[in-house]
Amino acid sequence: SYDVPVKAISEYQNLLKKNSQQEAVYHAYQVMSQPVVSVQLSDTWGYVLELFEQVHYQVVPVLDNKGQLVSVISRQQIYAKLLSQSSVQMGRDTSLSSVIQTRGKSVVSADPVTDVRRVAKALVMYSLDAIPIVDAEHRLVGIVSRTDILRCVTANPPLSMWC
Could you tell me the CATH number of the domain that includes residue 45? Predict the structure, then answer.
């Protein structure tokens, strides 16, 4: 038989009472990280390489000159480019716009009031590390990563929202 100390049960019950007073997390804006580190389409390849050396993120949103989301560049894409033959021909001053394709390419994103479960489902379904959160004008307002989802789930028991 498994005996649970009375003190542990009491502490767990207090935790449940405390958390029942918190607002349930349902929307992307409640779990998203902000401000978001992003790059401009006009930034150089060298700048992007240096940025990825400085930050621990797996993906960084790419914005156009109007501040609208046009792409996402991943650490994996950076490594693939570095290992490819084209990286030898590509200088550090090459603009990002000549390195990544944006025309005809849609970017998986969500709006701030998207249900967290839908964001989590998209992360899994498309094997993404993060999803940019954009406003009605397609301007970047935040980003939800797998870590953000896990932080939300572990910080807000009970987990009834996931049932």
Answer: 3.10.580.10
pLDDT in tens, 6-22: 777 777 777 766 655 55
Long-range contacts made by residues 92-95, C-beta under 8 angstroms, separation at least 24? 92/44, 92/45, 92/46, 92/49, 93/44, 93/45, 93/46, 94/44, 94/45, 95/41, 95/42, 95/43, 95/44, 95/45
Domain count, the chain: 1
Q: Is residue 46 part of a domain?
A: yes
* Cα torsion angle, 72, 75, 80, 85, sign: positive
pTM: 0.75
